[in-house]
Structure formats: C-alpha cells, structure tokens
Amino acid sequence: MSLPTLLSSYQARTERALQHWLPTAQILPARLHQAMRYAALDGGKRIRPALVYMAGVALGAPLSRLDGPACALELIHVYSLVHDDLPAMDDDDLRRGKPTTHIAFDEATAVLVGDALQSLAFYILAHDPQMLDDPTRRLQMVETLALAAGSRGMAGGQAIDLAAAGRDITLAELEDMHIHKTGALIRASVRLGALSQPGSDAALLDSLDHYAKCMGLAFQIRDDILDIEGDTATLGKPQGSDQAAGKPTYPALVGMDEAQRMARDLHQEALDSLAPLGEAGQPLRAIAEYIINRHS
Q1: Per-domain residue ranges for the chain?
Q2: pLDDT of the residue at 240
Q3: Dihedral, CA atoms, 155, 160, 165, 166, nearest 10 degrees?
Q4: Whole-angstrom Cα distance, residue 144 to residue 47?
Q5: Cα→Cα distances 272→83, 176, 208, 275, 276, Å
C-alpha cells in the first residue's frame, strides 16, 4: 500500500475514533461540546495517530487495539494547538485552514476546550475496551502520555518557547526546546503504538524511541523552513508567523542551508534506528521521508 493511501486510511480511522469519543452538541454543555468537535474534527494531517498505528502494526498489534491510543494522542495535540493559538500565547487566527477556536467561539470557550480535550485523552486510555487488556501496559501508556504532555514535555517546551521569543538562544537551547515542545508527543506516539503489543522488549523500544526523537527534531526543522518558504494557503496557518513573533528558529540561528543539512542527517539517523524491524518498519521509513519533504 502506498504511503498516501495508508495515511488516508489512518486519517479515516482517527476521524471515526474522534467522532465516537467526542461528546455531541446534543449533550450539555452544548456550546463547549460543539467547540470541542470544531477543534478536533475535519482537519489536520493526523501524523501522530499515524505513528501510533505504524509502530503498533510493525510489532503485530491489530488496528482496533490502536484506535484508542491514536485518538488520545490526537486529542492532546489538538488541545495544545487550541491553547497555542490564544492571544496570550501565539495569538493566531487561522489553524488548519479555518478560524482558530477562540475566533470561531471565544477565548474562555477555547481555554475550556483545551482542558476538556486533555482530560478526554486520558479517559480513553483508561476506558477503551478495545485496547490491550493489561493493566500494567495501560498504566505505562498513561504515564507516557502524561509525561509527554506536561511540564517535562510539550507544555514545558511551550514555556521555553515563550521565554525565548525576542532573545538570542544557543543551538543547544533551541534543540532542547523542540525536544520537549514538538518531539515529546511524536516520541509518545511511537511508544504508545509499541506498548500496544505484548512482547516488545526494552532494546526495541529504545530503537523506536531514538527514531521518534530524530524525527521529532526533523519535523520541527522542516516546520521552521516552511514558515519561511511556504505559503499561507498550503500551510493552513499564517506564513511567516514565527518570524513576525521574533521566535528562534533553526534557519535564523544556523542559516537555511545548515538547517536543511541537519534535517537530512536526523532523517538518516532515524532510518538507521529502524534496522531491527526489517521490512515491518517500511511504513515508518516512508513517513519519515514524508515528514522531511512535506510542504504543509
């Protein structure tokens, strides 16, 4: 199956899982539930859920067992976008090609949407009957997602990002920021997929984690490049918004040519980490290629 076809199938599975778990607007509080569905449905590349599916399938997990973790990852990601777009944070008015949640509704509702999406993600990990019936593994999944989303992961990376705006930082500081802000959820995606299959040993989990770490950084470098080279219609968000906000980026710090070289090196390192999977790792190799060459 080609990568576009595979990604499309995983996007459809994620959409169905989100439709299932998100409360409908017929349930009170109706406006909050409407806004949650507005933020989470009908948009996004669903890269993180795809990584859950690909990692799990590579180890032999059935797709039905991976729907819950994939949905939980996407809900955490969407919550982070809703909060990042707020005036107190990045102050963006366009996301995934449509008005951001606080523009379509209001700021207070957007704050509550993020809060509710985050808690729903952990509810799914605790209650999805299709997931692996192993309380130890479920607890490891909850721990993985909690660490990735919190102050030692994505939220911490966002805090570093906000503090760095408008000031000079080192390359090591920039890398540390993105290991947390972007990389933490990408690593969690791969790990949750792997944890969904019994028998995955520590060495294999470490190899998959290194793959995800490299791809998380490569993903962010590509994001920084697209902020300069992309266009608003393709990106689905304002082009040049990072530059306008004075945010530190890889091209600004090391130059465009060096940023592109770093992304290519990380891509190769990620591919090397998949060697233990053999042919089963081909979809993970293909999505790594997609991430490094994407235009949105």
Answers
A1: 3-293
A2: 55
A3: 170
A4: 18
A5: 35, 22, 10, 6, 9
Supply the pLDDT for residue 238.
60
Q: Is the pTM of this model over 0.85?
A: yes
Position 175: which residue type? E
39, with CB counted inside 10 A (0-12, 13-18, 19+), is: buried
Residue 248, φ and ψ in degrees, nearest 5: -70, 135
Instruction: Give the pLDDT means over successive 10-residue stretches in the chain (296 positions).
Output: 94 97 96 98 93 97 98 98 94 92 98 98 97 94 98 94 85 91 95 93 93 94 86 56 70 92 95 96 95 83
Residues 6+ apart with CB under 8 A from 12: none
Assigned token pair, 65: 């067992």
Read off the tokens for 113: 């949407």
Distance (Å, whole) CA 185 – CA 203:
20
DSSP conformational letter for 276: G
Q: Collect all residues with Cβ–Cβ distance below 8 Å to 137 and sequence separation of at least 6.
A: 195, 196, 198
CA 168 to chain centre: 27
Identify the pLDDT of residue 295: 79
pLDDT for the residue 166: 78
Superfamily (CATH) of domain 3-293:
Farnesyl Diphosphate Synthase (1.10.600.10)
Report the sign of the C-alpha dihedral through residues 96, 98, 100, 102, in that order: negative
